[in-house]
Amino acid sequence: MTAAPASVVYFGTPEVAVPPLRALNRAGHDVALVVTRPPKRRGRRQAPTPSPVAAAAAEMGLAATNDLSDALHVEADLGIVVAYGEYISGEVLERRRTVNLHFSLLPRWRGAAPVERAILAGDTETGVCLMDVASEIDAGAVYRRASTPIEPQETATELRARLCELGVGLLLDAMREGFGEPAPQSGETTWAGKISAEELRIDWSAPAEQVLRLVRVGGAWTTFRNRRLKVLEARPAAGTGQPGAAGTIALAPRTGDGPAVQVAAGIGAVEPVTVQSEGRAAAPARHWANGAHITGGERFE
Fold this sequence. Notes:
- The chain has helices at residues 18-26, 52-60, 90-93, 114-120, 156-177, 208-217, 285-292, and strands spanning 7-12, 30-35, 64-65, 78-82, 97-102, 125-132, 142-149, 221-224, 227-236, 249-252, 260-264, 269-277, 283-284.
- By secondary structure, it is of the alpha/beta class.
- A hairpin with a 2-residue loop joins strand 8 (221-224) and strand 9.
- The N and C termini lie far apart (57 Å).
């Protein structure tokens, strides 16, 4: 494949798949069809809302569908997949060459949650690959790749946005210059399965560094007085001491904005910065502590 395709079918669903779609459209490429997942109900009382990609396609005046089989009836030279979120059948793949932007340095972190798994594993580097879509998950040969460091306090959302920007560059370069011959993946394969809700429960007996990685992934939670509490933002606690056994909550003096909340981990301590009580809005952790009237020796469960 050495020439830029004349038209494409685009497969994508979440917000991270919107920038590549916009970039293709701005660059003048013919997006013949956008395939995205069906509208999703955000709350029990809310009407289903279109995916971010569906909304973006409508704004750009692009044809869109929730029916994967519609891709069989469109004339296009290339399929492009970015976080589509559903299995693409062999019948659809056989119609045209299909490539995928995957947010890892393959074959490390094949699967649904490569950004989150890289952070949880303490990786210091990751990247993005432009690859062939193969029948085996994320096993296709790679046309182009780019790597980037993972910053020590970078969240999954921040890292994903940077990887998306790198991926857009790879994709547009390939569309302009031609894809060339892909290189087979080599090296040890690791798997990036979806992150379960139970995996996001904080184990306070783990080292503070590990707890902070979980918070950076997003959705980390614990329980206090039998109610769930999300820890939305946290940082290493100031000083080297530990306020007691793992999970013990302490209030450390601070100037200006009130006391800082500190929680003992297995090694070191964590300072929650922003938390969200069950059924409540997000709030600074010190405000939550004041409202909860924390007493000495209380612990997260």
